[in-house]
Amino acid sequence: MNLAWKALLLAAGCLVLLACAPPPPADDGPAPEPGRPVAQCPVIDSRGWTSWIDAMPGLDAVLTLHISGEVDLPTPGYLVELVHGPADRMIPPGQRFSLVDRASPRMAVQAVTPTPVKYAGKATYPAYREIVIGCGGRVLARIDRVEVAQ
After folding, report:
1. Are 89 and 64 in contact (CB under 8 A)?
2. At CB < 8 A and 24+ separation, what contacts does 104-113 make?
3. Is residue 82 a part of any domain in this protein?
4. Which of 42, 81, 94, 141 has the CB geometry, 3.0–4.6 Å to 133, for a possible disulfide?
5. Is 14 within a domain?
6. pLDDT tens digits, residue range 4-29?
7. Range name among 61-75, 93-107, 122-136 with the lowest pLDDT average
């Protein structure tokens, strides 16, 4: 065989091998924050959770759900808030909330810091069987007694 045929066969073989290569991975959006898994919850401990519904009458009165508690965080640089989640189908329903955190971009001392957590928002229902507070896939608190103040 002459050199031209050998080069042509080599090029054809390379093309066949390239066609068998796996496709590059798909881009599924932004990468998670470096140094911390997405599902990790920074809460070390929590306590003192209470909940009540403000049903006081008035001209523009709106049922308001109040939740308060305290969490221990690894540094004082965190901001936390409760985010309204789904309710179950029981009567009265149980309502889920997620504790969402944002770590400060600044350096902070590594000291366990008690941090108050408060929520006040429109109550979807006039009564609740329970309030469940979750963080990073685990349940932090279950409030079984939700008082209604009238």
Report:
1. no
2. 104/75, 104/77, 104/78, 104/79, 106/77, 108/75, 108/76, 108/77, 109/75, 109/76, 110/74, 110/75, 111/75, 111/76, 112/44, 112/72, 112/73, 112/74, 113/72, 113/73, 113/74, 113/75, 113/76, 113/78
3. yes
4. 141
5. no
6. 777 777 777 766 666 665 665 655 55
7. 93-107
Q: What is the mean pLDDT of the chain?
A: 84
Classify residue 25: in a domain, yes or no.
no
Q: What's the domain count of the chain?
A: 1
Query: Rounded to whole angstroms, how far apart are CA atoms 146 and 55?
Result: 12
| pLDDT tens-digit readout, 99-122 | 998 887 888 888 999 999 999 999
Whether the predicted pLDDT of 134 surpasses 50: yes
Residue 12 lies in a domain: no
Residues spanned by the domain of 73: 45-149
